[in-house]
User: Which sequence fits this backbone?
């Protein structure tokens, strides 16, 4: 009988060892996919792609028991050779091949030149061939950056006493009311996909004080824009015993600062590959909604059409304004009109037409919506009634408040949008592995 | 204009400070929910519940500007007082109240005695009142343990070169074929909810070599057992360039060891509250499927009814056998019959009736299914044809193999089941915040 003890000795040389001093002029073993081949006649350069990056191997025709003509791109191989200094190679070294084992062989040549530094292909083509297009080094790096963001979110919140939760995506009703819901049949009962974990995370504030979730949300919105997805990853948190909604903004600011530090520390390679200039999250201005509208109206000579709404163009101008005036990459816009916020948003006692809420704009695009919520049972019921809404289907949500809830609030961050703005992409589909939109359900 | 710099000074005393030497006989401020009140006449003990645990505060009638009759359970409060040594209190100290601010007040008394150490209520009642029932200290601790498991999974895999991915939950078709799929209409196109991220994680092995995802999966299974949920959190990984399927088992063993260490280090409080005895993951035996059947048949005098199937009772007996014979909490059962595995499972070249795959049993319950996958395009097509399946809807999946894939494999772990077995619970619903089953779509 075999016993597993968690250890597994790989014949393959560890990446750090490969690049370290001790490996030089020694035999090493690498596995990877053949990213590209440059055949110079007597000698051929075979570039391997591994998760850590590219590594140059060199096949001298007379030295190995394999011919360059036996190799092709997209094969996966295990290569043995001598690690040799070579200034012109990535990492300043290469592997002079002494033996190759072919692990797998493609059935057909690649449909696009993924070995080009920049993949010169339309977004449409990239998305149709997503699993192939992402083999391009730049393309895949975007998703390492995305990993850093979600990782930073969790680590920062763990460190600040938050509990991670997993809430159901199938439910009897949505958190924001009837519109924009995907409907399904759940064992012959009508059900919907969650637009957000809003109700659940609020209910869990009564249990854990501070909670977060990183998971998919579903929006059956019919607009097909560059910044909308019908399924996206939402970074949600909710915290109790807040002193005010500004404490939520402070928590988000702290997260963003932590994320930038993590990127610098552990994702420097990808930042370099994508030539990303990290934004400044050290100081984030906060401006009232109505004030922001006035500021951009004055500076850019733009007429205010609706005092209680913010158009995408105005959002962009607010971003521009604060970049120009304060060199700010981020700006909090606070006190959104009550009409534009869901029923659970807490109105500002000083002026009930506005709420104790905020959006965070990053280079002129909304990446977060957050705010303080109503925590008093009777106030919540009154607000529901005032909106002409039904309590039906919200019984358990309301019961939670009936039995006591602390003052609380929270936010939701769209992970793909945050990544998009960080990378300066024009379309949010660039930063979603497999986007879902009005037309796209595959791959 | 306000500027956020990420800092937020709370008036409330930090938990560690509260329990530290410097706080003794000093003024401190705590906020929390009133978990219970013991009124002794002249003096009342008001136990506060915070995310970190319970803390005793004491109201002496003549000393504070508030009467005990103004307080009730489930209020949330901010309390000022003097930290005093008190051996009989939790943590050996209490707060002698000098002032109380009531932050919120419940509209009705609690429907269950959540302040009891053990919540003596049926599972059904607990689930119906989930947001209230979880305020019980034992109940909520289960989900801190669950947090540790998912956190350990991610951290262990990050450290082993895995990339985190987010794959769509709405798709055109399922990974395991037509059965057990929740169907929905996606802008008038037929769509399904993902049973697993299987196809996506495999496709991403061609990009990142090693990937993982922690997210919801949906199974429209009609059996209502103690170990099935229709929506659960799956811990999935997939890794390329494997030496064999045993390497996947080694990775899982390493994860389990890491998880136990993390639990001991950061979740000792919850382990103590729940009296959890951690299982031994240091050495995990692996036994062939057919051999395991023989062993339990012999020892427990049980007739083998079907050579190619494993009944739940047999699973439990395998667990019992390895506990009795090897004192093992976990056991890998390997080489499952090909018929019981999906088309993408790699058959054992030594005997094609079986596969290079495994389940992990934990105290006699399957918590993981994994194995090596077919990576050769033509072999995959042949297997699909041999099963009489259609390639329709799998074009992009198959294209990925057409253009080269390394040898690879992976696994999926049911988070709720893993938690259930760790805690010794009888029903998986105990370890799911908001379970979804045949009858339960709310809360």
Assistant:
């Amino acid at each position: 009988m075999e016993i597993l003890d968690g250890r597994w000795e790989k014949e393959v040389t560890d990446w750090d060892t490969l690049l370290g001093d001790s490996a030089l002029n020694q035999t090493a073993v690498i596995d990877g996919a053949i990213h590209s081949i440059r055949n110079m006649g007597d000698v051929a350069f075979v570039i391997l792609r591994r998760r850590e990056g590219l590594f140059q191997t060199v096949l001298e025709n007379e030295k190995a028991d394999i011919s360059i003509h036996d190799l092709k791109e997209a094969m996966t191989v295990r290569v043995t050779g001598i690690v040799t200094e070579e200034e012109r190679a990535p990492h300043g070294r290469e592997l002079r091949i002494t033996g190759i084992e072919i692990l797998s062989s493609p059935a057909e040549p690649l449909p696009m030149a993924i070995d080009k530094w920049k993949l010169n292909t339309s977004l449409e083509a990239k998305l149709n061939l997503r699993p192939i297009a992402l083999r391009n080094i730049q393309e895949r790096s975007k998703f390492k950056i995305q990993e850093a963001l979600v990782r930073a979110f969790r680590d920062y919140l763990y460190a600040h006493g938050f509990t991670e939760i997993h809430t159901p995506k199938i439910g009897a009703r949505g958190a924001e009311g009837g519109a924009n819901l995907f409907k399904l049949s759940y064992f012959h009962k009508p059900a919907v996909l969650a637009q957000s974990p809003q109700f659940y995370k609020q209910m869990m504030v009564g249990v854990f004080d501070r909670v977060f979730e990183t998971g998919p949300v579903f929006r059956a919105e019919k607009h097909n824009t560059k910044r909308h997805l019908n399924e996206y990853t939402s970074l949600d948190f909710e915290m109790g015993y807040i002193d005010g909604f500004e404490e939520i903004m402070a928590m988000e600011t702290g997260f963003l600062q932590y994320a930038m530090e993590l990127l610098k520390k552990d994702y420097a390679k990808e930042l370099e590959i994508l030539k990303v200039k990290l934004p400044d999250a050290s100081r984030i201005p906060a401006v009232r909604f109505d004030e922001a509208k006035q500021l951009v109206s004055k500076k850019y000579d733009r007429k205010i059409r609706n005092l209680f709404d913010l158009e995408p163009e105005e959002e962009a101008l607010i971003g521009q304004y604060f970049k120009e005036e304060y060199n700010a990459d981020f700006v909090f816009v606070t006190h959104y009109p009550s009409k534009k916020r869901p029923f659970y948003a807490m109105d500002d006692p000083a002026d009930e037409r506005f709420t104790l809420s905020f959006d965070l704009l990053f280079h002129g695009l909304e990446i977060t919506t957050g705010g303080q919520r109503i925590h008093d049972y009777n106030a919540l019921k009154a607000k529901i009634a005032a909106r002409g809404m039904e309590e039906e289907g919200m019984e358990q949500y309301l019961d939670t408040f009936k039995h006591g809830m602390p003052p609380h609030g929270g936010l939701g961050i769209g992970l793909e949008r945050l990544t998009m703005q960080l990378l300066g992409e024009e379309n949010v589909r660039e930063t979603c592995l497999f986007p879902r939109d009005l037309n796209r359900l595959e791959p």
About this structure: The two ends of chain A are 42 Å apart (CA to CA). Chain A touches chain B through 127 residues (CB under 8 Å).
